[in-house]
Each structure stands twice: as C-alpha cells, then as structure tokens.
Amino acid sequence: MAMKKEDTLSKEKLHAEIERLKKELKKRKKYGLVWEEKPEEVVEMCKQKLPVLKEVRNRGIMIGPNKQVNLLIEGDNYHALSVLNYTHKNRIDVIYIDPPYNTGAKDWKYNNAYVDENDAYRHSKWLSFMDKRLRLAKNLLKHTGVLICTIDENEHASLGLLLQEIFFDREIVCVTIIHNPGGIQGNNFSYCHEYAYFVYPAGGRYINLQERDENPDVRPLRNVSKGDHLRDTAANCFYPIFVKNGEIVGFGEVCHDSFHPKSANIVREDGTIEIYPIDTQGNERKWVFARQSVETIIGELKVEFNKKRGIWDIIRKKTKFPYKTVWTDPKYNANLFGTQLLSKIIMTKFPFPKSLYAVEDCIQAVIHNKDTAVILDFFAGSGTTGHAVLELNKRDSGNRQFVLCTNNENNICTDVCYPRIQKVIEGYTDLKGRKIGGLGGNLKYFRTDFVDAEPTDKNKKKLTEQATEMLCIKESTYEKILERKDFKIFKNSNHYTGIIFDQLAIPEFKKAIKEIKNKFSVYVFSLGDDIFDEEFEDVKQKVRLSPIPEAILRVYRRIFK
Prior knowledge:
The chain is an alpha/beta fold. Helix content is 27%, strand content 28%. The protein has three domains: 41-208 and 324-446, Rossmann fold; 217-321, no CATH class; 454-559, no CATH class. The strands form eight sheets. Strands 1, 2, 3, 4, 7, 8, 11, 21, 22, 23 and 26 form an eleven-stranded mixed sheet that branches. Strands 27-28-29-30-31 form a five-stranded mixed sheet. β24 (427-429) and β25 form a beta hairpin. α3 (77-87) packs parallel to α4 (122-138).
C-alpha cells in the first residue's frame, strides 16, 4: 500500500524535530545547574518599554552637608537594575541582598501570581528570576567589589550552583549565621540558621580582619622558632624598636651589616631603650615584620618585661583575626534586632526583617574604604541595609552611600522602607516616648517609569527629556543651578553636568558656562551618535561630551537583546 503524501510529510517533520532535539541536547551542560526557563513579564516588557527614573521630590531628605546622597528606587528591581547598568556600571563596592527564600509560603510573586509549594515550576521560576537579576548586578560591581547574598535551606544548594555559574571567575564562601536561636520547627529538624554567600575576586585579601577580644594571640614579635629565622635571612627585619617609660616611641632604621649590638636592650642616656631581636643565646634573629611594614601593626604591640631574661621585650597581642564561617553572636537574633527593632521605629509589623547587626557585620567585613564606598541592595524590603550603612557612618564618621531598590508590593516601599529610613535619618520617638536622635544623611526618592522602546525620532526625543534624573544620578550632581528651555545645568561640590536638548542651543550653553572653572559632563541630544565636538573645540579642556539618548540606548541594547 502506497504511503500517503501527508504521512510522508508528517514523518519528515517528526524526523526533523528529532534531529533538532538531538542538537539541543548536545548543547546542554554535562555538569552544572539546569532549569526550565520561564519567561517573566517585567523582562519581556523591556522589549516594548524602556525604564527611566522619575524623582518624587517631596520625599527627598537633605540634612547632611558634604555627605553622600543616598538613593531609594521604588519599582521592580529588574527595571531598577537596568537603569543602574547605565548610571552605576562598575561603581558598586558591595551588593548585599536578601532575596525571597522560596519557602512555598507565597512569599513572592512571579508574573503577578504568588508562587506556592504546589507550583510544579516553583524552583525553575525562582532560578529564572534570580539569574536575570544577578547577571545585571554583576555588571555593577567594581573589579574589587563583593556580593553578599543571604538564603535559607530551601534554595541554598541551587543558589550556590547559580553563583558558581555566573561568578565563575570569583571565589565563593558560604557563611552560616545563627539568626533564630530558638529554631523554626520543621518535620525532622528545627532550623536555627541561615546562610550568607560571600562572592569576591580570586586572589588577594577582600575580607577584612575581625576584632575579637576572646583568646587573643599573644607572642613575641621576634621570630623564636629554630631554623632559618636568623638575621641574615631577612636583612630588613633587623632594626631597633625604641621604648621609653614602658611605651613604644618609635622605630629605628634597618641596621647596617657591620653593626652588631651587644645586647637585646641598649639603654640611652635619656632613658630610651633600643630593643633588638636577639635571643637568650645571643643569636641575632629577626622581627616578624619588616621595617617598612611594622608601623602598620603598632596597635597590636606592647612592651613587656621578661623576668627570666631580665630584659624588655616586644610582644604582639593580635586581636584581629579572619572571620569564622559560623557566626553565633546573640545580636544576630532576627526577632530581637529585626522584627522588634523595626516595630520600635515605625510601629509596623513586617515579616522576617534581618537583624540590623547581622547586616552591619556583613558590610563591615568587606568594606575597605569607609568614605566613598557604595552599597547596593536591590531586595531592600524594610530598609535594613540602608539603616546599617547609616549606623556604620555614624560610628566611624564614614561617608558611605547606599542605593536601595524595592517594589511597592503591599506598600512595602511607601509604608515601611521609606518611613524607616526617614526616621533613622531625622530621629524619632519610640514606643516608650523616648526621643531617638537621627543619624543624619541625605536621600533622594525615585520611581521607575517608562518610555516607548521603538527607535523613532519622537521616542528618542522623549527618552532624552525623561533621562534628566538618570544623568544627575550618574554624575552625582543634584543641585540645579540653571534651567533654560533647551538646556539644564546641575552641580555638586566640584563637578557640573549640562544637558542640552537642542543642538541649536549649544552657543547659548557655552556662554552660560564661560565663567565656570570646574569640569563639565555635557550630554547633547542627537538622533544618532553625534557629540558635536567641533562646536565644543574651544572649551574641550573642561568638557566631556556624550550623545544622548544613544549612550543609554547602547546599554539597553546590550541587556535587552
């Protein structure tokens, strides 16, 4: 019986589909994390609409002269991260996030529907959700930047594999934090801990040392072990340490090879003692630290009289140690220092806020520059990260900046996060009527908004008009000093930003900036990629030109491809 034409076509289609699937399977990883990719509405939306920011001016707080301006962005964090890919690429020192834990208890939404334990794609949706945001976030970190991500047992293993895939070029360490000493009863175990993944560059020291008072490491500063710890093995480690009245008063230069002190202690006429690293047998040994670096640990040194030898010696009392991978301090209790602390500030109950001190210690562990560090939290929730940054600034007179992003699901941004930050900055009265002083600082409040993505001249013009806030954030220039029909000028203490909406206004703009000596970042509207550098030839030494909106569109084309 002859095969029908329709049957032949069906067989050919089936064969073609089988071959396609074979090729697809060959592409699949042999090792790693694989999940069912689930489209997400807020991501797909960016193919039609481009995110921008609009300032909510009546929620700004400016009471900290010469202090960083902190940012709070209300909107979906995928859209906020997209904007930050333009304004903050490679500028973030620390990302601290506390994402949804995917417990199955409807603690987060995917495509506007709560994900519960009965959702067959629950874990795939969570991985799709996190993957997109972590990839955008990676672009924001400095090359020395650190990501910290907390999680519990529900997605602990999956998150670890996802981080390994995205941050394949970095080191990843998981810390256990005892945050609920009483435990949360499970079917077989009572869970009293959660995890914090620290992701940092490979090689070098990126995690600070921790001060600990218990069991200090006390030992002589001179090398006392046998073997190759004699003077001739490290010439720059043989020098005098000057002591007077039991205190270190200075360090001498490295001794010449021909100089050999007769004793470990040489007393000068003014009572100053020169102490050398000489052992009980009279052997010239060496200090543990070279002359060029010993002053960096002077706070760990003390003078001690050795009764057995009858001489003064230098002892190193080490109180700073590497962080442990299990954190057990009672101040990490999320109920006492998260839930109850928050209720004292805004008198509102919020589910599962982090312990303020757990967040502080996570940030403190990785911050190396307290004056210019930028900390991002794109799952800001109740605002604990912002509160922690302000506390750290108050404690050590730092000038760190936070950037918080959160949606407004159940009014979390307007009724919880913002009021908390406002009260912490300005001060408040607690439940017992006590006045709590403010920590000071500045805040700008923004909401995500959108412009049509179709690359028409009209849409490019509209994107340029709507990009003012983004440009001010990028340049950290928030004070408007001049506004004309076709251009605007903003400044901070040492830098200016100019935005020109019509190239015909360039001559007038140049007149307006003629007497200003500081450097300018100038953004000029162009339907293409023209920066009109010829028109700025006479002031090229003080301006840096960028086309607008093309500078933004280039970023969006890359991340929304």
